## 1
Amino acid sequence: MCRRWMRTSTWTCRRLKRERTHTAQRDAPLGRVDSVLILGIDPGTAVTGYGVVRAGAQMELVECGVIRTKADQPLPARLKDIAEGVRELLARHKPQAMAVEDVFYARNVRTALVLGHARGVILLAGEEAGVPIHEYPPAEIKKAVVGTGAATKTQVQFMVTKLLRLKSAPQPADAADGVAAAITCAMRLPMARAVAGLGLNTLGARGRR
């Protein structure tokens, strides 16, 4: 069943949820747990996709969906809905890491600026929650999940389905993109733990904290 959060226009899809086999150790440091819960987000002012992935011996999809805003609302109201939706996800899942898709190149300057506003409130929500935030360019996410930075949305959905052993692809495509961001972060964890063992504090070129 799918659940709609009316106050924040958050649409949460649980049809792809797999049975949990263990509980994430949420309060332990990032490099010292058997599993890590990651919230991946694909920013957008109309539709913001998200996916919650547990990374351990295997990757497991916990939840995915989208945060929708109304087209007839002014931008500040839509940004408020996005921020509140992300805060609800952070409060409900208490992830240990947050992966956010970085700004892509857009010929339309206004499109890039508006997307930047959406990313801003998302990053703020993560910072307020004290969650380490890691940003990845779209091409890097596609390459990590599909193997090429020029992959199509359909290809991303297909590989997300295979990597997480799902019966069907996450829908809509924005949700799959959010899951892909989380998977990319999960794929960086083994290297991050190795680096942490060397006394360095990083999860990637654009990771923070």
## 2
Amino acid sequence: LSPKNPSALVDKSIWKYHPTTHIPSSQEKYGKIRKKISLTVAHVAQLMVAKGLADSIDDAFDRFLGKNKPAYVEKHRVPMIDAIAVIKSAGGVAVLAHPYLNDVADIDNFEPFLLTLKEMGLEGIEAVYPEHPEAATARYCQLALKHNLLITGGTDFHGAVTPGIQMGIGAGNFHVPYSFYERLMARLEQ
């Protein structure tokens, strides 16, 4: 393993390691649990920290795994209409996650976009999210109420890779109201 070239860790796919890095393959490291969980780039970041290539998970993303970094792998994107259809066919509630971070931050053009998604079957919007500016959160809540959409929230909890963040409780004093969960569950029971 060469700390001089940790970006050699990934070759076009998160789980295809270069043979010269001596980093355990996903099969060696995660093979037994891979069928039980979805492995993500965060697991690669954990492995980089464990192997001394990065000082922390944030460091791994900042220097290697984040967008436009040497080991970045583009995510597979599913068309929204297909994603909404799959969620609904599985009995779920389709919610637009953290819209401010998903290239729909232009509040003036957001409402027509939201209405298009609602026509496709969208039922809610993650209006409350730690990285949303207050004005965006207020606007998302207003639009959700106006168009009879659920207001949901998220803390960016991703298990052990997000220490200090729990489901419903984020960093600092950020929290998602329990009433959001209750309304979501009520919608599922309809």
## 3
Amino acid sequence: KHIEDKGVFIKTNVSVNEIVAVNEDKLKITFNEETLYTDYIFLCIGSIPETKLAKKTGIRLGKSGGIIVNKYFETNINNIYACGDCTEIMNQVTCKPEWFSNGSFANRQARIVANNISVDGYNNDFEKQSYFGTVNPVSFKIFGLNIASVGLTADSAIKYGLNLASHCATFHDRPHYHPDSKLLFAKIIYKKNNLKIVGLQLIGEGEVTRYIDIFSVLLSRYSNINDLLDLEHCYTPAHSSPLSPLNELAAMVINKEFENIDSIAPFDINTFHGEIIDLREENEVKKNPFKLSSKNIPVNKLRENIPLLDKEKEYLMVCQIGQRSYEATRIMTNTRFSKVKYLEGGISFLNL
């Protein structure tokens, strides 16, 4: 939606039938019986490791097409090392070798290879350096929106056949009253059986990569949700909130898994068929109406309205970013409502 608001139209699941040069300045592209005229066409069809030289010399390649190396970046041929975008390295989340194309990996690996060659040839008093793999942190920026990810996504988890759970949330990257405050949208992936963290995605105009960087370190150390809860961070209103978004994500997961505070992801809201209660103030509702049918009960009036609600009905609590609806769900759960959930990330996430 952010990209479309900037005047960019996105077409998915289409097949290109034809690309024709109309004249020196215009191109015509036809797909699915639709035709567009444009100045430029960029073909982004992915990349593969360049290993022609390795094949000629008998160096072993992996399933991804990358060169197989050990933790010292040694190949199967003595005294030949390989590193960077042509090699397979260990995915520390799946514990499987994979091919990653990332400049930051390549630069660090090159230093290790240089040191290990030095140890092999001239400096036997030192041990070789090891490289144990990556959790694959990546980021990019488009129209002022920062997007970052580390570890597995929900879709990639299915590919590996893992039994994972997830939770979405919306935060301010610093206190909401600060003039530079921006919203962050987060989705954490974790193992349901032991709460091991598996992945994190963040989107927002504010601080994003620093949380991915912190999460990357914990992920590479096979940490769990409780380690996120114990995380310490620098706090000053100009830079951060008293609780890190990572602290809050951990608390939400623990409340979901152990304290019966149920929720529904914004992607799944159409699967809910009960009554929706909008906890925002009346002026908020008028300014930004909720797109689904709902009943407005401001959160500060919820307790006095609880006797009027049916404990046998299913309720979904919604608010702007999810904090009030979480609080309301806990209130109702504590008053013996057993079929109540809250919308993860709130209306802001739903409208993302």
